[in-house]
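Input record, target 12 of the design panel.
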């Protein structure tokens, strides 16, 4: 490890620290009256523009943006505050906007509802008298589903869950049919939807929904310890938030909404740091539940735009979440009052063995084997019942892999005997888990060898049988440059094994080609949503595997800046309607990938992590295998 940098050495891309967040809240309290009765949805660094960074970190001003609202009248505002002096340079009213839902509202809603006689009576009527066992989980609405009488309110709807024991799994027992509808600004119950009908007279089923070792009723299996040691220490350095490993170099950012952000990713090649990406992050996640029943028809989560991955990032534990020699970075977010909240060990950095990098056995020279290792930067998010584990992996051969694992507890509900809905899988006694989809939109501001790039769709095509191709074997690739944003709307094509090539337009590799990277999709599936459905109207972004736009720092949120109670998608479909040129320019790729979750009994009561990923692979970026120089392992090492 290199020496720690002092506070004066802060880089312009470093996230806001606790002092800065406090400074912003104090400033807005003093100058704009943001105090009791207001909430903050977000406070984040305004990242310096690309051009400003290009001239070096010195002299780049620091500023933050905050979105807050007055719960008394529901009016929201966006403020710009300069740091460190605390001047409000912009104060913009946002009429009709409902900012993201806050963790504080989630907790306060639970507590408020358990004080409502109507809720208590509904629980009593079901034989539930110990309110300590009850969990109320509020969800956000899409505008089209908000009842007319509640238009204009900051509204939520909730599931009610009950634990069997104080440590039991609350998400094992939904109170099917019971859904409070709430005004989050007045923090008041508007109505209680209560229908005993789905359960019928049979009552709640007896499920096996526990996962804690003491509660499953099964012995723990016997396994011997598996430990990872690096006696010589790690081979990466962390200088402030600048991470260097092998040939890779990148900077680690973090914010309330995207969670981990990777900045200025480059590969050192022959003494030259060659840019690969200016910025990579997850910009939205859309999870529609594909079930029309009263328990689920409102359940379309925008986990990034409505809630924020950063806010829901959890602390990691050495030996459990990450194995080996680990370095952690803390993250600082804030609560709805504007007070800083530190998440300890939020980002994990470590190396992993990754099997064989390359190998050949020759009769004369024998076996040549190189073991691969990879650098992993990860963070974990808990969104109420569900977990998302995000891993960015950097490889010695220039590959970058982005993997997401989904685990945690599926949403389930009960049904009356003989009434199982067709829109989910049976996972326990009279209990089903609705089918749903997890769409993630990765925002990839790639700069392959610099900003001007052109993206090509690359399709493999077999040639017809002709005299020149008598056996029908010939296969060619077709590269189609994407010239405008309408070309940039791309779908995965199984028949042509489509991938996308992002090529430099200004540099040439050693064998005469354009240095490029390839986006290799691994988790693509169609939305399977009717155009008219409210969920699709709010998320046109999920309608394609890839969108390409010209770089614009203001274009960050593919389903719009404020998806909470949104009716339409103000992001990608609106921006790309202009059909701007995207050829030989600074492009941003928006890759939609995820999990088409057809639920199954093995996902219950806690889901073994499912995984999805995409890759960025060099394609003529290097002139030959860039990992020829990896040394052989010593015999016996690691055994
Ligand atoms: Cu799922």
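The sequence produced for target 12 reads:
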């Amino acid at each position: 490890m290199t020496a720690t940098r002092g506070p004066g050495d802060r880089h312009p891309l470093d996230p806001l620290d606790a002092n800065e967040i406090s400074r912003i809240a104090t400033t807005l309290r003093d100058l704009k009256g943001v105090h009791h009765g207001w909430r903050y949805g977000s406070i984040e660094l305004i990242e310096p523009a690309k051009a400003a960074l290009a001239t070096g970190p010195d002299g780049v001003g620091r500023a933050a943006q905050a979105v807050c609202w007055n719960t008394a009248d529901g009016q929201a505002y966006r403020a710009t505050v300069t740091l460190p002096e605390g001047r409000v340079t912009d104060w913009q009213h946002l009429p009709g906007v409902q900012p993201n839902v806050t963790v504080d509202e989630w907790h306060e809603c639970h507590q408020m509802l358990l004080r409502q006689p109507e809720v208590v009576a509904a629980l009593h009527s079901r034989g539930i008298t110990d309110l300590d066992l009850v969990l109320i989980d509020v969800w956000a609405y899409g505008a089209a589903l908000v009842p007319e009488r509640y238009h204009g309110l900051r509204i939520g709807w909730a599931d009610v869950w009950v634990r069997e024991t104080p440590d039991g799994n609350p998400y094992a027992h939904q109170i099917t049919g019971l859904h409070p509808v709430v005004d989050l600004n007045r923090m008041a119950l508007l109505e209680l939807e209560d229908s005993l009908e789905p359960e019928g007279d049979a009552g709640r089923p007896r499920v096996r929904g526990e996962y804690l070792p003491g509660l499953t009723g099964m012995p723990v299996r016997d396994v011997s310890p598996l430990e990872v040691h690096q006696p010589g220490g790690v081979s990466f350095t962390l200088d402030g938030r600048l991470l260097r490993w092998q040939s890779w170099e990148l900077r680690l950012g973090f914010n309330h909404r995207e969670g981990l952000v990777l900045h200025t990713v480059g590969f050192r090649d022959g003494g030259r740091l060659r840019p690969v990406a200016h910025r990579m992050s997850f910009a939205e996640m859309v999870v529609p539940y594909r079930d029309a029943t009263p328990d689920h028809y409102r359940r379309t989560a925008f986990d990034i735009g409505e809630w924020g991955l950063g806010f829901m990032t959890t602390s990691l534990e050495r030996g459990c979440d990450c194995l080996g020699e680990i370095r952690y970075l803390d993250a600082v977010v804030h609560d709805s009052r504007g007070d800083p909240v530190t998440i300890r060990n939020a980002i994990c950095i470590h190396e992993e063995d990754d099997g064989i990098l390359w190998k050949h056995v020759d009769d004369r020279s024998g076996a040549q084997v190189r073991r691969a290792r990879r650098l992993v930067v990860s963070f974990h998010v808990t969104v109420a019942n569900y977990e998302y584990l995000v891993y960015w992996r950097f490889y010695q051969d220039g590959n970058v892999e982005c993997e997401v694992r989904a685990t945690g507890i599926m949403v389930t509900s009960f049904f009356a005997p003989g009434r199982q809905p067709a829109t989910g899988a049976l996972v326990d006694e009279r209990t089903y888990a609705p089918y749903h989809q997890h769409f993630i939109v990765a925002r990839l501001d790639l700069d392959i060898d610099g900003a001007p790039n052109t993206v090509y769709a690359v399709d493999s095509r077999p040639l017809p049988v002709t005299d020149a191709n008598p056996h029908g074997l010939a296969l060619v690739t077709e590269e189609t440059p994407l010239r405008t944003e309408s070309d940039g709307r791309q779908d995965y094509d199984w028949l042509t094994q489509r991938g996308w090539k992002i090529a430099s337009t200004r540099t040439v590799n050693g064998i005469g080609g354009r240095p490029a990277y390839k986006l290799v999709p691994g988790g693509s599936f169609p939305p399977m949503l009717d155009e008219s459905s409210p969920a699709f109207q709010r998320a046109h972004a999920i309608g394609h595997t890839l969108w390409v736009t010209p770089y614009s720092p203001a274009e960050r949120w593919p389903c719009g800046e404020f998806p909470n109670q949104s009716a339409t998608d103000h992001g990608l479909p609106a921006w790309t309607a202009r059909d701007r040129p995207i050829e030989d320019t600074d492009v941003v790729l928006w890759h939609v990938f995820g999990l088409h979750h057809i639920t199954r009994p093995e996902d219950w009561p806690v889901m073994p992590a499912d995984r999805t990923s995409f890759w960025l692979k060099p394609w003529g970026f290097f002139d030959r295998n860039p990992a020829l120089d990896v040394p052989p392992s010593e015999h016996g090492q690691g055994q």
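Residues 406, 436, 438, 595, 597 surround copper (II) ion (CB under 6 Å).
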